[in-house]
Amino acid sequence: MKRRDRTLITHAGNDPKNNKGIVNPPVYHASTVLFDSVADMHARGRDKFNNVHYGRYGTPTTFALEETVAALEEADRAVAIPSGMGAIAGAILSFVGVGDHVLMVDSVYEPTRFFCDSQLKRFGVETSYYDPLIGGGIAALIKPNTKIVYLESPGSHTFEIQDVPAIAAAAHARGCIVIMDNTWASPLYFKPYRHGVDLVVHAATKYLVGHSDVMMGIITMREEFFKQVKTQVHGMGFAVGGDDCYLALRGIRTLSARLAQHQESAIQLAKWLQGRPEVERVLHPALPDHPGHPLWKRDFLGSSGLFGVVLKPATVERVNAMIDGMELFGLGFSWGGYESLMVPSSLTTARTATKWDAAGPTVRIHAGLEDPLDLIEDLHALLDRQDDLHPVLDLVQERDLRGVGVDERHPREEELEHLGAAGEGEEQVVVAVGLVEVLQLLYDLESPFQVLLRQVRLVQDVEQGTHGLAPAGRNSALLARGVAALARACPAPAPRITVGLRNSTSSLFLTWSSR
Fold this sequence. Notes:
The strands form three sheets. This protein has a seven-stranded mixed sheet with strand order 1-7-6-5-4-2-3, with helices on both faces.
């Protein structure tokens, strides 16, 4: 009887009857496997990929994981690999040799591009990149020696949706193998084998494991390709440990619940960001205004937590400052875990067949399992703080300190009396920021210029040290870099930078002099 996905997630790979009634498959740690006799050793060796023969070929824990992923993806077989990149390399190398050609989507995961341009090139394999939106037109790019057409949909960082059935049909008509990276959608939200794909690769590190604590890759395939792929990855020395397989299995048991929350939160964040003045456009295939939405709606069963945001024109410093200031969104590679992440996307050098044309910088967001309202509040506070910091960052970029003001928010004369007004030849900027962050800035600042605290009204005596201050956070570090950069941007002679605080409004005063 065919089972639905949520039932497969719960039961596939489990065999309590043969494990003394224990629900979860046990963890096998194995290198050496003992045989009953020489005859037994030879018999198992004749079909070593389907038997427990040696630790590197797999154990019952490995087989349970592979069986589960294959069932979810409607594949015949699966092979576990120590990393997602290992799965990509193993799948490609299973079908190419010297003199062969690979057609690779131009929006592919950057490490895949590096592998093709370095390792495959050294092996005498040519790679050509194609427009992700080419569809059936890819037939014109297929050469007599083309062995693989490789897809990744949506595109990494830019989220183009490919017409998988059209590309697969054109590839098969010329005898090519079709490989697809299905990490974004997972086996739940896209079924590659229904659309003509031959092999599928996953960075199981991401949604399948789901907890940011295991490196893992999976290749799924039709039965006809199993021996060829298994022979290749075995020859490359790939093997996964029992503990990692167990953690991957445990992660899969909650995949449907986690992915539903990732999807809901990401769409909520994406819609909110669409209404922000700083945002040019949101790159999320599930949004109706996304160019690939019709294809996504036709072929996909859902969307995950990963999407992109194109900002309006802004400096690199401004975008970096924005990301540095996040509280709930971590700055780190990978995604698919329970935590939210944000990274800048470097796209100008990552294309060769197409040009990425955007109004401003692009960032990639992964919506984790936090409450989406808290994530929106984090984004809202950060974008509002960025509005306050823009004049300082613009000043650094323009390297011009003359006559600069900040949103008409210069202090009134009576507010400057206790601080000491700017002297002749000096300019003053006000940056709204929390009181504790200002104090931490004064202790963290690394600048070759003099920094003076003019006046701070606090219960604690600041001169006694950092007692009572919160540890340095990303906001104070951002300010420290901004002030240090401001100092470095001043024209010679080196200026004297003075920092003061208006306690009544918790605003930071920066006064400089180039005399």
